[in-house]
């Protein structure tokens, strides 16, 4: 077992994703897409017992840690497999519920991934995407026009990279689609899912005196927090690549950085990030 630190170990079904419990029933067969270390997956397995739960991820270390966690909890109705959601190795109509958490925005082809999830879900079952991020769904106050334009450029750059023929180039994109939450109705409809239900969750509420009122890696400022997983470095790499590929220039990046610095010092500053919980019926 690797001793490397793994993100998301603090996440649980009850604390992180209680909305999912309304869809879980005793005996249900459930697939967790992008299960990570399995902390939420194990909670689902407890709820649906004796129903079967399968967790998949593209990271071997996460699968290893998830298997260890399930074994430690004595869960016999759960298994984990190394698999990509874009090519699910399951027959049609295998699961009652297929869900993901903080994963849809990471998919290279979100509509294609949702179609695959729909394929393996039983008729009248549910495909659910929880924790879907959107960096700009709620505007900042006071306005930060250059900073906002930088995010728009990131969206264009992300779409550009996703359409490159080299899969490795596409897979090096960090931190997911910048506007994934607002795309959920479009993506779910294009995947053929119906009865769409969307709930909005607020997180990282920023205002003068708030505990979280400090720069985040995405905010361009020098980050004084923990970067043990290399997320801050990934933003730097993306900004550099956007300059190199002509989507932004150094002047725009510097101006956005100055706006960000000024915004964090402004006593009027107010902003919050959102996450979407989207459920569509097969």
**Oligomer kind:** single chain
The name CATH uses for the topology of the largest domain is Rossmann fold
Helicity level = 25-40%
Structural class: alpha/beta
The fraction of residues assigned to DSSP E strands is: 15-25%
CATH architect. name of the largest domain:
3-Layer(aba) Sandwich
**SS summary, helix count:** 9
Overall strand count? 7
Return the string of H and E elements: HEHEHEEHEHHHEHHE
Mean pLDDT: 88
What order do the strands of the largest sheet run in, or round the barrel if closed? 3-2-1-4-5-7-6
Q: How does this model look, in words?
A:
- With 282 residues, this protein is an alpha/beta fold.
- The chain has two domains: 13-134 and 176-205 and 273-281, Rossmann fold (3-Layer(aba) Sandwich), CATH 3.40.50.150; 145-162 and 206-271, no CATH class.
- It is built from nine helices and seven strands.
- It has helices at 13-16, 39-48, 60-72, 110-119, 145-162, 167-171, 180-190, 231-244, 250-265; strands spanning 30-33, 53-57, 78-82, 95-101, 121-134, 194-207, 270-281.
- A seven-stranded mixed β-sheet has the order 3-2-1-4-5-7-6, sandwiched between helices.
- Helix 5 (145-162) packs across helix 9.
- Mean pLDDT is 88; it is low at 1-5.
Defining traits:
single chain, 282 residues, alpha/beta, Rossmann fold, 2 domains, seven-stranded mixed beta sheet, 7 strands, 22% strand
